[in-house]
Amino acid sequence: MTSCSSLGIGLAGFGTVGSGVWNTLQRNSDLITRRTGGGVSLYIAKILVRDLAKVRSTTSEVDSEIFTTDWKSLVADPSVEIVVELIGGTSDAFEIVVAALRARKPVVTGNKALLAERGVELFAISKEMDTPIHFEAAVAGGIPIIRTVQDSFIGNQIHSFTGIINGTSNFILGRMTDGGLTFEVALAEAQALGYAEADPALDVNGWDAAHKAILLATLAYGFPIDPAAVHVSGIEQVRPADISFAKKLGYVVKLLAVIREHEDRSVELRVQPSFIAKSNILASVHGVFNAVAVHSDTAGESLFYGRGAGQDPTASSVVADLVEAARFLGSASGHRGFLPYRDSGRILPVGETTTAYYVRFDVIDRPGVIAEIAKVLADHRIGISGTHSPVDPANPDAEFVDMVFMLHSCPFGELQIALTVIETLDCINSAPVVFRIENY
Ligand code: NAP
Ligand code: HSE
User: Fold this and answer.
1) Contacts of 6 by beta carbon, 8 Å cutoff, 6+ apart
2) Does residue 160 sit in the same domain as residue 287?
3) Is the CB of 50 under 6 A from ligand 1?
4) Residues 109, 137: one domain?
């Protein structure tokens, strides 16, 4: 532990999360100092922003002298001892983190895209410089899941994680289900509440959840993961009709991340909209809340639940990391992050993953269509548990209608082959939409 003199923080980014960190330190820094026996006292020495003229809710509270638009001067400033990266993205953020590590200044970041895409390079530099990267805020906002995997479960073999790990998409699905909102209106609400990424496409196309899933899998299974190996689809294709159909059958639609180690040690890693039974505990995770169910050999089943996005919950994780970085500042073994312990690992190809499915076809409304599709499925030995063709009351004479098939479990690869054939049928109007049906 360092002496009780105040440690200067270089805060790169003063948007939703950065200003939350400022607020939390304003409120609780005395508490932190008392709780660490007087060992940790933190203050914000420099703040990096893009636009100095922007009016901020904190403008009157923060000394304008400490703002800069020059990240190099922030990292190099002698009063900055720990660098917090909260600007997002993978280019400038990468430069900032590298420069901080090279200057042996510990880094705290909430940037899952950066770590999932360029973590291999960054953790190598972290190791070389014996300077840590802390990233609790990168996964599941205020839930301390990174620390759980790195510390609390260090003596566990983790069999699986099943998680709702994108607050924005969970919020949107909930508002579409309960509030009857359109996708666009629900997304605008999530943005206004500070849940969405600067590029909200990452939230709705599943990639924000995939970045987080990559970080969890990397820590749990010990090998770096190429994002290209992950099967990702998002909630853009979810329609109110899917949600209400799921409801009739006793399911809810959630964007689920599934990370599972198989007996041959290959790792299943996918993010997809999924039907889960209403009785499943994850079905009760609403709004911006996240939940991660962990199944491990020693602890058994555990569930971690809390706010997965937003200013204060995320600031809570950043500040926890700041205190940890401060506690170990200058200690001989500063490295913290990801230490590979397997030379390589195998991500299970998505074609080999098996679940049941919900498939929505857009078909010409004529007799015999069900039989045509059913024949192709039967040819590929895929069982049907039910079909349904909801009539759109607003458009009863439509030329094209939705035709829903619920399918028994089969390898995804088999289904993909069958769908390729079905798409060639002249009754099919556009590409089918597939959601998983997850049974736990
Ligand atoms: P944000 O509200 O968009 O804030 C970004 C901040 O960084 C702004 O202050 C912006 O400056 C500054 N900035 C961006 N690019 C910059 C550049 N090239 N040079 C200098 N300053 C730059 O973002 P956020 O929601 O706080 O998210 C920040 C990071 O935390 C992201 O990596 C995100 O994925 C992660 N995260 C966010 C949440 C959440 O709930 N929002 C939760 C967990 C993790 P101006 O203010 O001048 O525009
Ligand atoms: N945009 C992210 C989400 C922020 O909605 O989950 C938290 O990582």
Assistant:
1) 41, 42, 43
2) yes
3) yes
4) yes
